[in-house]
Design a protein that fits this description.
It contains 3 helices and 2 strands, in the order αβααβ. It is mainly α. The chain has 2 domains: 47 residues; 58 residues, Roll (Membrane-bound Lytic Murein Transglycosylase D, Chain A), CATH 3.10.350. The chain has a two-stranded antiparallel ribbon. It starts with a helix and ends with a strand. This is LysM peptidoglycan-binding domain-containing protein. Keywords: Membrane, Transmembrane, Transmembrane helix.
């Protein structure tokens, strides 16, 4: 093996090692980023658990529509339909009929 071949093989090995380090670094950074995002996503979801939301008691004659309009400014950007859909989903309401003295959770944070 002559000197040029030796230098080329040395350069190739060094270049290959540098590429492996870069690839490994990228994978580590990528995994850390995924872990970081997952942590804060889970934290946000837990922070908005039903325990954080206001529970109200239904009065005679109230509807989901009237309740949505009453709490419109406190719902963090929900429109009336989004409010109603959230209440139906979170409270397991099969129809839009509410009963007097029924307790429901609404998407308004407790204070």
């Amino acid at each position: 093996m002559n000197e040029q071949t030796f230098l080329f093989v040395g350069w190739l090995m060094m270049h290959s090692t540098t590429q492996n380090v870069k690839g490994t670094s990228f994978i580590i950074i990528f995994l850390f980023l995924i872990l970081f995002i997952s942590f804060f996503t889970a934290r946000t979801i837990l922070a908005n658990s039903p325990d954080q939301y206001k529970t109200i008691t239904i009065n005679r004659g109230e509807t989901l529509w009237s309740i949505a309009n009453t709490y419109k400014k406190d719902t963090h950007g929900f429109n009336t339909n989004e409010f109603i859909n959230w209440v139906v989903r979170e409270n397991g309401i099969d129809n839009d009929r509410l009963q007097s003295n029924q307790k429901i959770i609404i998407p308004v944070l407790k204070q």
